[in-house]
Design a protein that fits this description.
The chain has twelve helices and seven strands. It is mainly alpha-helical. The protein has a three-stranded mixed sheet. Helix 5 crosses helix 7, helix 6 packs antiparallel against helix 7 and helix 7 runs parallel beside helix 9.
Length: 231
């Protein structure tokens, strides 16, 4: 009960003197209905008491899926509870980046990505999360209809393109093109572009070789002659 009271006190803007995100208390970035479900949940009261940036990391590596609220009672997932706790703790950005770049714990990385989307500035959201689009680690994800198999790159793509994820309404992220026009971002070159260029070059070379062979009518006979000599 004391933990629940402390959580409600942190949600009271009167006299709030902590870190501000977008000009306000970061814990208020989640809707009131979601916050109420979190602070009255068993996981919150039993597992989130007195967590700090280090001990929260220990909880995060125990996660087995990501999700928002589910079931008739709309109970919040442990993932969502820890995300809310992060909003209360507001760790330094360097700590969040350590979470995000940890190669051993994919659910810790997913939690960090979610926090980045909620709290970082628009250009920094893109700069920080876009490298994760090359991470194909499997994730178990709880949706309304049940659990599905997903991947970190899919989750991050949703964070960059959707307005509601894991039972949470996200603030409107400006389109990447808008930030490029404002010179806040450089144009993104897809990691696949080099491979596509290579494939196109290979196709062109193949066409040219076949074209020469068919034009002079000697391509096939030369190959036959060489093979006969080697035999």
């Amino acid at each position: 009960m004391t933990h629940q009271t402390d959580a409600k006190r942190m949600l009271d803007d009167r006299g709030y003197a902590g870190t501000l995100i977008r000009g306000g208390n970061p814990a208020l970035l989640m809707e009131k209905a979601v916050r109420d479900r979190i602070t009255t949940s068993y996981y919150w009261m039993e597992q989130c008491h007195a967590l700090n940036a280090a001990t929260l990391c220990d909880r995060a590596v125990e996660l087995t899926y990501i999700g928002g609220t589910a079931g008739p009672q709309q109970r919040p997932s442990p993932f969502l509870c820890l995300a809310f706790k992060l909003l209360q703790i507001t760790p330094e950005p360097d700590i969040i980046l350590e979470y995000l770049n940890n190669p051993d714990f994919k659910y810790l990385r997913a939690l960090a990505a979610f926090y980045v989307r909620l709290t970082f500035e628009p250009a920094d959201v893109y700069k920080t999360l876009e490298p994760c689009l090359a991470d194909f680690s499997k994730l178990k994800r709880r949706m309304r209809a049940g659990f599905i198999l997903s991947h970190i790159d899919e989750f991050v793509d949703d964070l960059l393109t959707k307005d509601r994820i894991c039972g949470t309404s996200l603030w409107k992220l400006p389109a990447r093109e808008v930030l490029e026009d404002l010179d806040l971002l450089e144009e993104r070159i897809s990691p696949l572009s080099a491979e596509m260029d290579l494939d196109a070059s290979s196709d062109e070379e193949f066409t040219q070789v076949n074209g020469r062979g068919s034009d002079d009518g000697k391509g096939g006979s030369k190959t036959t002659e060489i093979n006969m000599e080697e035999g």
